[in-house]
Every structure is written in structure tokens, then in C-alpha cells.
């Protein structure tokens, strides 16, 4: 065999061997068992696809939405918690605190929404679990947990007068906030005060924590005043949000304005334009004159204690110059301690004749506040919160507008200048 023929023979053998090896390697996929394996694998993919399609066909079309979203914090205590559904109807919704206390709520008549029955608590974690069914009765479920705004990150406004009360014509709407307000325009924009009389009403800020509302003149007798607080979620200061969402109404009663004249030492009571009575009084002494100006009765006490030490009247030992534990028929006119009240300890001769008090307006009265025939008792029984008492001719300065509910001592232009909007 020549080398050439030998090389050709080896090449053919090599090719044959290579073919057998290749055939053997490829042929492994052609034997019966491996062929079944391939067929089985293809069938598995097909079966899984069918399972997925079947699962998709069985899934409910109902789409449940819970707000606030899961994990939210600083949520509103008024309107944040809601559940709604599309392409289905709610079948069950439960809400509870992290401690397990249930929160009552109501699914709407159409089955499309749910909300709690009342206001939530601040700084509290809640969990909502909801279920719904679509038109084919297939169920859907959703869960969410959230935490409401904390006291440190929220503010409230304590307001007067009370909802449903009847007050005098001088009663302003006064709101005292428990946090200092820096975004005054935003907060004031969330508060609306209106009167059935149609009187224009304007707000005035006294510092960062107090906002009062009043018309130019006294409220019209018999009118109804409405206060709307839409402060939920309003940022009053950086990181501090409102939580109130409510409407308050109160009625303005008859118009009663009483004028105290320290010079004549009398008080004339006028109601609805007619003089009811003129009562002898004893105002502040020359050393301690009574503030002048338009004052509003803000509190009434059938009996109360008056201690001079609480308003700066002390003796050399630091004790109050007076301490009377049962002052009858007392009505507050200022935050700094000005009252109009009954006086049983003064001689009858001082009333209408001498000004002797430490700044209050005194009326003849009886100890124990049980004698309804005295001037002090009569005036108390015929006065309501919000009535106006005008004090004049005392020689003292006019009471500050924010000392009590006495914003009437500011003219209309000044009052409106204190508005943030």
C-alpha cells in the first residue's frame, strides 16, 4: 500500500468512526426512551400553560382599593380610611387597631364602598381587611395597614361658642390653636364663617395661635351663624397638619347691650332697642379703675372664688389683698380678671354713689346667690354668653381687643387688616 492510499484509508476510517460517534451522540435523542422524554417535556409546558389559563379564568375581576395605602403614616383621622371596589361588590370589611379593637363601619347600599362610622384616634395603627365578589361570584381579597397622624404632627383649634348654643349679639367666633400657625393663609382658607343675615364676616389673627371672626357691627338678633372647619390635612406649620373636619352652627338671640357709666355709677340695660332697667353699680376705684370699652360676657358663674393674688393684687406678705370664696353671680368680661358680679360685702350705700372695687363692676347682691330679687341676681338671670357690656367714663385705657372676646374695640379697617387672606 502506498503512503497515499494508506492516508486515504485512514481518512475514510476516521470519517467512518467520526460518523459513528456523531451518529451515536445524536442518536441518543432518537431512542424510544429519550423520545418519550422529549414528548413528556413538551407536554408539561403545554399542561402548565393550560393551568395558568385556567387560573386566570377563575380569578375574580373585582378590584379592591384601600386607602390610605399599605404602610402609610400621618394618615387623616377623618377621611383617610376608605375601601372601594370596581367590577364587583364588597362582601365584608373589617377594621381594627393593632391592639385588636374593632372599628365599626358600614358598607354602602350599592356595595361599592365602605368607611368607618366615626373619627379615628390620633397616633394609632389600624388594619383593614376587605373581601369582594365579582358578577360570577368569584372572590377577591385585599389588606392594608396604616398609622394615623400623631399629636406632635397635628394641630386642632378649640373654638367658641359651642355647637347648638344661643349667644348674645357680641359673641365672636374665636379659635385657639394648640400649635403655633405659620401658614396662616392656608389655615384661614380652610375656615369659613357665615351668617344667615348676610353680614360680611372677616377673620383677624391675634398672634400665631388665635383667629377670631366677626362682622363689622354686632350680629343681627335671631340670625344663625355657621362655622365650617375644613382643616383636615392642611399644613399649619412645617410637618404639622390639621385634623378637623366639622360644621358648627349657633343661634344669635335677642340683642342686649348694657352700658356702665362709672361717672354716674349706673348701668343701663337695653334689649332690642328698649331700656329694660337701670341698675346702680360700683366700678373700679380711682386707684384701680375699670377698663373702658366694649366687652363681651365670656363666662358665667353662679358663685366663684376671687383671689387678688391671681391678678397681681398682693400685700407685703405676697398674699392677695382680697380672697372671697363665694362671689355671687359673676360674669367674666376679660381674661385679665375683669368681671361684672354681685357684691354682698359692700355697704348698700356704695352702689350708685362710690367706685370702690379693684377694677370689677359690682352690683348689690346677697351671700349665697339665692336671693333672686337682688340687682346682681336679676342681671345674671337676664344675661347670656355673648351679651355686650360697654364700660365708659372710668378714666382708664380701653381694654385690648384680645383680652377676652373684645375685638369690637378695633375698627373695621384694623380688623380686616389682621386677616391672612
What does this entry look like structurally?
The strands form seven sheets. Strands 21-20-19-27-22 form a five-stranded mixed sheet, with no helix packed on it. It has helices at 3-27, 32-58, 184-189, 375-381, 412-417, and strands at 63-67, 82-86, 89-97, 105-107, 113-116, 125-133, 139-147, 154-155, 157-160, 166-167, 173-177, 191-195, 201-206, 210-215, 224-230, 235-237, 240-242, 245-252, 256-261, 266-271, 274-280, 293-296, 299-307, 323-332, 339-343, 361-364, 388-392. Strand 19 and strand 20 form a beta hairpin. It is 17% helix and 36% strand. The chain starts with a helix and ends with a helix. With 421 residues, the protein is α+β, with helices and mostly antiparallel strands. Mean pLDDT is 88; it is low at 1-41. The protein folds into three domains: 63-149, Immunoglobulin-like (Sandwich), CATH 2.60.40.3780; 153-253, Sandwich (Immunoglobulin-like), CATH 2.60.40.3710; 256-406, L,D-transpeptidase catalytic domain-like (Beta Barrel), CATH 2.40.440.
